[in-house]
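It would be a great kindness if you could assist me with a short task in structural biology. I am sending you one protein, given as its amino acid sequence and as whole-number tokens for its backbone shapes. I would ask you to consider whether the tokens describe a fold that such a sequence might reasonably adopt. The full record is reproduced below for your convenience.
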Amino acid sequence: MPAQLLSQPNPPPDPSHIPDSILSLRVDVPKNVLSSNELDSIRRFRRAADYIAAAMIFLKSNTLVEEPIKPDDIKHRLLGHWGTCPGLVLVYAHLNAIITRTNLNSLLVVGPGHGAPAILACLWLENSLATFWPKYTRDRQGLSALIRGFSVPGGFPSHINAETPGSIHEGGELGYALSVSFGAVMDKPDLVVCCVVGDGEAESGPTATAWHAYKYIDPAESGAVLPIVHVNGFKISERTIYGCMDDKELTALFVGYGYQPRFVEELNDIDQDLASSMQWALDEIHKIQKAARSGNPIVKPRWPVLILRTPKGWSTIKSLHGEYIEGSFRSHQVPLPEAKNDPEERKMLQAWLESYKPSEVLPNGEPSEEVLSIIPKEDKLKLGQKKEAYAAYEPIDVPAWIDHGVKKGTQESCMKVVGKFLNLVTHSNPTSFRIFSPDELVSNKLDAVLEDADSGRNFQWDPASRAKGGRVIEILSEHTCQGMLQGYTLTGRTGLFPSYEAFLGIVHTMMVQYSKFVKMAHETTWRQPVGSLNYLETSTWARQEHNGFSHQNPAFIGAVLDLKPSLARVYLPPDANCFLSTVAHCLRAKDYVNLMVGSKQPTPVWLSPEEADRHCIAGASIWKFASTDDGLEPDVVLVGIGVEVTFEVIAAAALLRKLVPQLRVRVVNVTDLMILGPQGSHPHALEDTDWDALFTGDGESDGKGRRYIHFNYHGYPVELKGLLFGRQGLERVTIEGYREEGTTTTALDMMLQNHTSRYHVAAAAIRGGAKVNKKVEVDAHEMISYVMHLAQKDREYIYANGAGES
């Protein structure tokens, strides 16, 4: 079966076996909100927007169909998704009307991201497009430019993105609209985000978990999300799960989640139905908020959800070539795919577009007065011009970290030290900073942020953390944490996402989608900066010897390295003071994706706070204390990038001083990974002369011979190879890193298995040094053999005793 077989359009779900009594839990409301004038205006707005959306998919000229459509009037490539557009226009029209009636402060988040024609049409009608894109004026010329320029090179793409005014969600990958919406309303008590969740998107795992997100919303301090589940029944070629569920099943599902479901499905009176339902939902939201803000919160409040049932591709042609179009998957994209070449399809297109009576609702290419009457008069209330969506960033107050540094020469957990600092950050920013964590804060030794009620958890269904102003959202879904963080960040605040290293990859594609949004935002003239997306990656593979192979995966580093260089930042601070400096920097930074990688176990504090400050500013430095003669005239350069692998480099240098005193070693630590790329490849990339100063030159210009460089890297070696590609003299570079070897074992054995141990580093140093130092060369084979013998003896001891090193 190549596609869904249909016996009728808009097929109803089969009846379930759930008792009818469950329907008593769905909400019924009187449908009498709209006056006759409002009703007429909403219908006209819908006709205008539906017309523009459909015309955008097909037409390049004759944009008001004032004459018969000719082949030359139709675009060469027909791109776009019609199926979701009528439902999105319906929601937009009613949200506009209720804003006009009540001055509601609202954003619209659209899950069906390929419904861009609908949203762009509504933005043009409310004159928000022209505000940010002056060529789309609200007149015949601007309308023609919009219709002609959709989904063609240089025009708007087929999905909602950062170029779409009012948007805070990249409408490509499905699943995240709901969690983004909940993040957006946090700490914005007057904001209501209307979130449209498509029934295709509703099948995704991230959406399934995000329904629980309201349990982390304190109605005393935050706004509310009004979810509208748009059940039009079809994906691209198959029915949806929700479309095959009857009202009893959907009622049971959403009541179980904790919502009050209201079905909006009376197609013959859909406008009164939706208007009354939205007014009821807002009244419920205000009731819950009023109770919480008066000191008598409703325990486990049941928030409203609207379930909107309308036909897929509503108002398009009924059938084509004997196949159903409206009310079927065939209206998902382009209902008339051969309209340019097929006279019959072209005739049907003409009739379809004329059915909206564009001359009535768009006389001379401008919205009629009736259409304009439901659009908010004040620009600040228009959905496309909300400051929260494009100009809301407020820098947070980051305490001076250096005052909280730790003593050089001690052993400290980077995460414990950072946790105490983050506790200060939360107190300094009680309404603009949050931590979104997949239930790992204690395990990751960041639990100092939980010491005080007003900096602790914000789980409203737990009496221990309810209504206490907690700044921490802990939910085991990485997807939900990521979506909330995105919504919180894009509406002007700052957040942090700490996680086990191995599981950050779960949100890899979400992070990429976000970076695409920010990349495009940079290319507009009107989107203002936002805080950075900050990841704190710990419980790393190097010290996951107790959890085993499944918990050993540093691949997220590579995911960030693949982003646009102007956006990507990766830091591997070597000790607690360097980590403090890095966290403070990232929390102040704007418009980046910051990844900080470090250990939660106690490790040496190599640098004083002042030394750490200088080291982090530079991104890398020669560690003279671990080098021969302060690193002067080295035979070999040993580079540590990461906490544990740097420890092994320093241990190797100490071993070499004892075993091969004639070998001159320079130890370098890199904390900012991005400095290593070729000159000009990244804003932080070292100039060639600075590279040579750290790692030595290629030996040709200074006549001193080629000094070999060995990198001991926390991540996958292939990442570092790719980053270094383009630097001169790479034939003198060797790299070791995580080799995808591991198990439940000891920390040293993890180093041994992945060739990042002190012994492997020492052997590499001898091999490299022997090529430039004859005194080393003469004993090189003997010393390498002895060093690797020590490695084998240590491994035998570990396996015999279950711990330690010999």
In short: The mean pLDDT is 96.
